[in-house]
């Protein structure tokens, strides 16, 4: 009864409230990881046990069974068939996730205020795939590897308890961020940048407090805005009576409102990873040096809202998943000696769409995001072709890219929010498919008008 009254007071269901309480509990759980006695083995056990316990309280016993399936298959592949463990893990883990997406249809539940373990399974899927691929990379010659592969490859197979600890640690499987198994092992064993040095231990207090204040602000703004911009409005008669500008403005505000929910979630997970120490990424070059916590960061709020181009969005939104997609999909589709093109971009966005769920809205949004990024690159090429002497024209192209990103992102993200095919197409049609038409026109113009990069006078004379 207490849970029901508390849930109704903040306008959520009991399952969502239970999840939120466990999600916030990842912060003290992560802090106590620092104090676990008994060395690395005890810390691995603590990470595995607390992660499984929080999952059990949030989603029930079946959640851990779901997590165990891709974890076990991937680990077995690493033990039994190292030469192909990466592709086995990718296909099996993604396949199982897709099966769960189809069975639970979580997007519908999330829209109605429900929740299940599929979101956490999404994070587990990325972790087990990257671990297997990195172990696979340990067989390759160093000269054949990219810098990220050299940094993250595994020469030795992690023990099973190390592996489970990595997958479940700090409750990061709830909402990320995704991190590399090699970083997890170094952190647990206090190696690498986590070795004690003359600079001392990095203080987590300021960074944690900043993340928590950001979380409070984001949730407050979301709760204030969401009653004014419900997704149900898209199917109401009043929406159809509005003019083009008013409908486009509402699409912008619905996307803007929804983003603050994600900002809140990622701010909490950032605080959790920072307070554990795992989020530490090294010292700055300033004097005195300052601790950096980039590994914990999953979103740059101002970077998203004021992105100068669409190309910047993967660098500031769901940062660690974007990094994962670049290292384990995008880069690996590029043939040696060749440059990446639209195919690699589209394939990466397709994987991202399937990973999110088998809803038409996801697929359409991520295909459109590939067009959006390609169009932004065309505008950037025009900007680069302008000589330095024409500073005003250069700034005009910068402003154009900013406006283009703002328009296309917020006209496209409606599909990500409503998910259903009919609702997605109806919302897009209500603004004349502007989120699709504009990028296509820009891409076509970019192929017709192919600018040459501007060269400075000094370079010409040379």
TrEMBL record:
Q: Which GO terms describe its molecular function?
A: acyltransferase activity
Keyword annotations for this protein, in alphabetical order, are:
Acyltransferase, Membrane, Transferase, Transmembrane, Transmembrane helix
Transmembrane spans = 12-33, 45-73, 85-105, 204-225, 262-283, 353-375, 396-419, 425-449
What is its subcellular localisation?
Membrane
> What is the recorded membrane topology of this protein?
Multi-pass membrane protein
Q: Quote the InterPro entries the UniProt record gives.
A: LPLAT_7/PORCN-like (IPR049941), MBOAT_fam (IPR004299)
According to the UniProt entry, where is the signal peptide?
none
Where is this protein primarily located? membrane
Which superkingdom, per the lineage? Eukaryota
Which GO terms of type biological process are on file?
A: lipid modification; phospholipid biosynthetic process; triglyceride biosynthetic process
Gene Ontology CC annotations of this record: endoplasmic reticulum; membrane
Give the protein name, as stated in the record. Answer: 1-acylglycerophosphocholine O-acyltransferase
